[in-house]
């Protein structure tokens, strides 16, 4: 038995990806138990447990090189953001300091930003007071630098650098003093270094600080004349360089922004040519700056002078406009120096450059101008091409004299200089492809050259008024449709009169359809072509022959059909009748020679001996049955299990065989859920009698009967018939395959509470347990629907479940599975002890808590990131509100505080089967104004997010002063919104107002909302509220945990 259990467990536990913090998963990175103690218990178990430095007894958790999170109590003791001097080793210029970071190194946190607060690190200080040279040259194992004093409220992250992947060194370079700063030795300046790593691993390094004259060209990218000349030959070339400012760049006060310390990358551009170079950082959509420097040496003193500066911020509110710089650089005789700089030391910037506007668009001649935003020349009338040269052919006229060997500019295959492109042949001022020559047009071409209105290059003759009709896929004259008979010319010498125009039986090309001719009485229409006597005779004879042949074919087909047995696979997915498993007087015996029967094989794997069987897949296996008796008939009945979880269909189910006969029974298996299958037994009974009729009577007696319905009358009849039964046996077929892991859940493995924990218009939510994991089970309310409506909605739910099974995101409630094989459809997701956000926002709620502002911002950020993921996958939520936001953690420093649920399920309610549009979705309080007209867009979710953000901040019911849903609807449609007081932070308020704009097109995307919340979070310390709710939060978490645990225990019992 132990061996069988192990075989059963292997497919269930090894089919999904699991993190180190989880012992087993029920879906990819979806733990079916709580995460290990050292991991953040967010059901993914991918992040180490977060710990707050402000805790009374702080603990730290770091990941080692094997991916395991280790707990450490070895934390550096300090009462400010910076430790005492006794914990800081002093370093001196030019003297290497050995550094060892290992498991014995105390943990601490930096003044710079990291995902996990605690790190393995050491502190160092450098006294800059006696040093006259301000430029730090190399720090060969350095992470973070600050010159803030210890008594400051918090440390300013002056510099931060991480080691690049390709190097073992971490280098920080820069001038950390204002350009006019003079060190006279009177002011004490101390630089503090924090060298750290986020992995528990032994690291041996050396820290060296040196000083030198500031070299502006350090860390320089060079764009040369040779490179730009090559790019000028093909203007489609765009070169890309990715700069990770986390690992590269030097620190400097830019000459054009002398009060802002920034991280910069230097460029030198050297080219002198009649084209321009376009530099861009628009693609990453991040704010950065670009400046042009001029270096001047005076009396052996280096001075950088600001020439120009470009800001990467938006200049308009257009949604398509991105942040980032776009700069056009003209060639010059001398080397030009530029700097790309940013104050986001962690950002990745994709820098691109390309050659544009050759010959400067002949702007000096007034032929055009170079437009940076379009990255090309914009030409005046009569001029064109890459450089706005005089066009050889313009508006159906040649603009140059010698044009015999030139093609029409603008025609297909003709380049900007009126020459045919490669793969085309010049012919009568047109460029003809080789395919067109062979009367076999390319996909991009419109017609065959032999067709009406088609010229030599396989395109419609636009010069003579033809255009391509996208409906008929043929060339059509612009005169066709004017109710006149026109003479139409195309090509060089083709001429033809229209046969009709817009009349009866007239096609799109103004010709009569086949079998019709022009009607002389109404020339714009066509009439049926008259038939002569000879034609009539031919039709009669031909028709007679056709009838004879048709009758012969029909008779042949009928005979074939009558002798052909068509297999309908759907038939084998249906449950078969139940036959009473009557084994009184029967012997349990394996098939052998002595028992006079054979059933082979008895172990059924359906072709999946080494793999599990997929759900919804129908597979079959042939079973060979043999009657070894020489003088008795044998009947075999297969007693199929009657359950909606799977179907075992035997063809035939009852077989009666003459003596010494061999037959084949096919067993079809269809699985509808992941269930325990391997080792399951399907019984069969074997009956021997000399009378075939007796066996038939027994089969009829047992049919549609079971142990409960078998009565005394049936028993008396069986006793009478059994007198003719010489011997009977029973045995089992054993399944040797298992059901594959899937999201189709076996209802028998799902324990559900008796009372719902939540109830709404769409259904009820119950607490449950699935394989020892707490889950939430949503059952839809379809009691009052007819069969067609239920079938339609069930089909939608199944499709939605299949889609949800593919979605994996930290901010989306993990979908575990669904039960769809029974009429009561259920969806199963992970259960959250802390419930929904709506349970904490109102004072009348049992678990009301005044949430810290920082936690509110974090919850909004996690919600926006989850919605961003849904929208990227083209999924609308349709009912975004606090009740559909599940609380994963009430700690603002947790890896995840909110998980979104119930997206799209508001569609699963009664609707007209003939109407494919969803009506009245969502909750009116949070619904966008356009949804009142049944218009649903992604922007509608953004509006709902705004109302949710307002409710989260104020923690009161929206529109509480309005008496009915109709009042709310009227209020919103009139352009009115919820009101604000003076206390709400400006950035928070502005974000809400942007998100609930009346016009959906004016609302931001969730990408933009995320960016806005990042700025709100950066400003969060300026809006902290008085009072500490930590004790109340801990009380709520403990109380809910105890309550839910009791409910889970009661369900398990």
TrEMBL record:
Signal peptide location: 1-15
Positions of disulphide bridges: 379-388
EC main group: transferase
Kinase in keyword set: yes
Residues annotated as transmembrane: 535-562, 812-833
Stretches assigned to the Protein kinase domain: 751-1020
EC number annotated for this UniProt entry: 2.7.11.25
Domain EGF-like: 353-389
Superkingdom of the source species: Eukaryota
Recorded coiled-coil stretches: none
Descriptive protein name: Serine-threonine protein kinase, putative
Organism, scientific name: Entamoeba invadens IP1
Upper classification of the organism: Eukaryota, Amoebozoa, Evosea, Archamoebae, Mastigamoebida
């Amino acid at each position: 038995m132990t061996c069988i259990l192990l075989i059963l467990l292997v497919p269930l536990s090894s089919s999904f990806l699991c993190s180190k913090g989880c012992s087993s998963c029920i879906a990819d990175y979806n733990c079916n138990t709580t995460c290990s103690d050292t991991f953040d218990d967010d059901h993914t178990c991918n992040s180490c447990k977060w710990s707050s430095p402000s805790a009374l007894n702080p603990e730290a958790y770091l990941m080692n090189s094997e991916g395991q999170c280790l707990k450490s109590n070895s934390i550096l003791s300090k009462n400010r953001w910076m430790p005492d001097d006794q914990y800081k080793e002093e370093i001196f210029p030019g003297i290497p300091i050995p550094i060892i970071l290992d498991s014995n190194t105390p943990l601490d946190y930096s003044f710079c930003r990291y995902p996990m607060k605690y790190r393995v690190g050491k502190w160092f200080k450098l006294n800059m007071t006696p040093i006259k040279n301000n430029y730090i040259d190399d720090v060969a194992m350095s992470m973070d630098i600050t010159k803030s004093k210890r008594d400051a409220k918090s440390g300013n992250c002056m510099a931060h650098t991480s080691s690049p992947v390709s190097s073992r060194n971490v280098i920080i370079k820069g001038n950390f003093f204002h350009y006019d700063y003079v060190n006279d030795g009177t002011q004490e300046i101390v630089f503090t270094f924090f060298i750290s790593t986020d992995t528990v691993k032994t690291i041996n390094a050396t820290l060296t600080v040196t000083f030198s004259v500031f070299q502006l060209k350090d860390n320089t990218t060079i764009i040369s004349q040779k490179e730009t000349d090559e790019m000028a030959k093909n203007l489609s070339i765009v070169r890309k360089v990715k700069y990770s400012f986390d690992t590269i760049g030097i620190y400097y006060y830019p000459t054009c922004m002398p009060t802002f310390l920034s991280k910069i990358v230097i460029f030198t551009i050297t080219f002198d040519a009649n084209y321009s170079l376009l530099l861009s950082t628009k693609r990453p959509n991040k704010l950065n700056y670009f400046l042009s420097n001029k270096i001047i040496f005076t009396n052996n003193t280096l001075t950088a002078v600001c020439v120009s500066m470009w800001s990467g911020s938006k200049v308009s509110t257009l949604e398509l406009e991105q942040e980032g710089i776009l700069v056009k650089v003209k060639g010059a005789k001398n080397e030009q120096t530029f700097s790309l700089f940013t104050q986001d030391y962690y950002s990745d910037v994709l820098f691109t450059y390309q050659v544009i506007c050759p010959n400067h668009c002949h702007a000096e001649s007034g032929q055009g101008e170079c437009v940076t935003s379009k990255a090309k020349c914009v030409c005046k009338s009569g001029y064109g091409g890459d450089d706005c040269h005089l066009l050889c052919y313009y508006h159906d006229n040649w603009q140059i004299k010698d044009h015999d060997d030139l093609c029409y500019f603008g025609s297909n295959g003709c380049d900007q200089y009126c020459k045919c492109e490669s793969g085309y042949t010049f012919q009568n001022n047109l460029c003809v492809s080789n395919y067109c020559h062979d009367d076999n047009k390319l996909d991009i071409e419109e017609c065959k050259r032999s067709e009406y209105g088609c010229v030599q290059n396989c395109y419609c003759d636009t010069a003579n008024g033809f255009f391509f009709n996208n409906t008929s896929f043929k060339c059509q004259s612009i005169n066709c449709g004017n109710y006149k008979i026109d003479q139409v010319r195309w090509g060089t010498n083709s001429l033809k009169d229209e046969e009709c125009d817009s009349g009866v039986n007239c096609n799109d090309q103004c010709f009569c359809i086949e079998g019709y001719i022009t009607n002389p009485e109404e020339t714009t229409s066509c009439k049926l072509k008259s038939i002569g006597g000879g034609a009539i005779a031919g039709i009669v004879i031909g028709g007679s022959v056709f009838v004879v042949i048709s009758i012969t074919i029909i008779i042949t087909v009928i005979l074939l059909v009558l002798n052909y047995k068509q297999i309908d696979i759907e038939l084998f997915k249906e449950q078969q009748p139940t036959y009473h498993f009557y084994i009184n007087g029967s012997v349990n015996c394996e098939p052998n020679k002595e028992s006079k029967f054979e059933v082979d094989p008895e172990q059924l794997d359906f072709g999946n001996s080494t793999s599990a069987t997929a759900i919804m897949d129908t597979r079959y296996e042939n079973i060979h049955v043999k009657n070894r008796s020489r003088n008795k008939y044998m009947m075999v009945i297969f007693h199929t299990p009657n359950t909606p979880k799977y179907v075992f269909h035997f063809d035939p189910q009852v077989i009666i065989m003459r003596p010494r006969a061999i037959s084949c029974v096919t067993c079809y298996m269809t699985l509808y859920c992941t269930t325990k299958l391997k080792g399951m037994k399907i019984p069969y009974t074997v009956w021997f009698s000399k009378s075939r009729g007796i066996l038939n009577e027994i089969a009829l007696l047992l049919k549609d009967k079971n142990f409960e319905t078998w009565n005394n009358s049936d028993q008396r009849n069986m006793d009478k018939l059994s007198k003719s039964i010489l011997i009977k046996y029973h045995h089992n077929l054993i399944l040797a395959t298992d059901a594959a892991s899937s999201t189709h859940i076996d209802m028998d493995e799902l324990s559900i509470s008796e009372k719902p924990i939540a109830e709404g218009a769409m259904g009820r939510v119950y607490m449950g347990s699935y394989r020892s994991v707490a889950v939430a089970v949503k059952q839809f309310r379809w009691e009052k629907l007819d069969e067609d409506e239920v079938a339609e909605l069930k089909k939608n739910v199944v499709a939605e479940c299949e889609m949800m099974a593919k979605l994996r995101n930290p901010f989306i409630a993990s979908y575990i599975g669904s039960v769809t094989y029974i009429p009561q459809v259920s969806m199963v997701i992970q259960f959250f002890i802390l419930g929904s956000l709506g349970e904490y926002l109102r004072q009348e709620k049992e678990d009301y808590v005044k949430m810290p502002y920082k936690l509110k911002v974090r919850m909004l950020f996690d919600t926006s990131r989850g919605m961003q993921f849904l929208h990227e996958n083209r999924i609308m939520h349709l009912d975004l509100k606090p009740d559909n936001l599940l609380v994963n953690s009430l700690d603002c420093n947790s890896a995840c505080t909110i998980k979104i649920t119930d997206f799209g399920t508001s569609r699963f309610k009664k609707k007209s089967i003939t109407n494919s549009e969803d009506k009245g979705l969502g909750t009116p309080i949070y619904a966008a104004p356009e949804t009142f007209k049944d218009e649903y867009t992604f922007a509608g979710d953004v509006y709902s997010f705004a109302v949710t953000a307002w409710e989260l901040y104020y923690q009161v019911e929206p529109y509480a002063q309005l008496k009915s849903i109709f009042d709310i609807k009227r209020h919103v449609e009139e352009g009115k919104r919820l009101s604000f007081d003076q206390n709400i932070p400006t950035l928070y308020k502005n974000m809400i107002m942007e998100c609930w704009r009346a016009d959906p097109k004016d609302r931001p995307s969730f990408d933009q909302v995320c960016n806005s919340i990042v700025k709100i979070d950066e400003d969060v310390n300026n809006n902290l509220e008085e009072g500490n709710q930590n004790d109340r939060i801990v009380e709520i978490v403990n109380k809910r945990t105890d309550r839910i645990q009791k409910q889970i225990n009661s369900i398990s019992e």
